[in-house]
Amino acid sequence: METFSEIFMPQRRSTFAADVDTLFHFIHITGFILLAGITIAIIYFCIRYRRKSDDEVTPIITHNANLEITWSVIPLILILIVFSWGFRGYLTLYTPPSDAYTINVTATSWAWQFSYPNGGVSIEDLYVPSNRPVKLVMMSEDVIHSFAVPDYRVKMDVVPNRYTTVWFEAREPGTSVIYCTEYCGAGHSSMLGNVIALEEEEWEEWLESGLEVDEDMPLAELGEQTFNQSGCDACHSVDGTPLIGPTMQGLFGSERQFQDGSSTEADEDYIRESIIDPQARITEGFPPTMPNMAGALSERQIEGLIAYIKELQ
Which residues neighbour 112 within 8 Å (Cβ) at sequence distance 6 or greater? Predict the structure, then answer.
């Protein structure tokens, strides 16, 4: 069965992925057997009871109580098996262990933001320890999203104004893709991320240093790194390619026209405002979908973004 899963399913990287796959395969194999049996029966009856001559009269067939009970009881038994099996899995999937490490997840159009108990924040990439249960407490800042990691067999809607939770335990170190599986607008397909599972010791080291900004990195280089890691590239190009938001190429020093009819020069102050309060002034011709990055980025990262954008002429 494991070989079968490896061929037709994503990798199994969580502790309960095997149970989910086993139920999945049971449903499909049972369905295939029923399909094959019914198809063979239809073909047999078509041949056995076909009309052979104009004079032949089709005999009157009365009901068969035993047959009717059989084809009612067998599906009922199968349904009860699937229900009880699935309900047991449901309880496992939605009842996180009491010692699970809790990470807050915020979904915005179109990026994932992860907040750790030590105050650190990462965007797009979620870092977790392997062989330790992790609980995600999730909320959306705008529309309905859906957090899904096929390798872990987890999927949960993320909705505005309420919390939803999901948990998993990575069996081993590795990287798995995060998808948004609820259509959430023009940038839906680019709302990707990664779950990066690390050994416990390596994860503890990352937790202490990986969330810190390299103070020695040149500002423009830090800005480029932040631009790519924070999901800015999902909506803004750097080469003039039209995307959901304005391109960053040639932005600095240009005249910006806003939806309310006003305009201003794109200087350092304007770029900073666009990062920490993007709804203050909406550029003409573009939707107001930019998430507020205040608190998600450090002051040095914001300065780095400004320096990087200034170079994109």
Answer: 105, 106, 123, 124, 126, 147, 178, 191, 193, 231
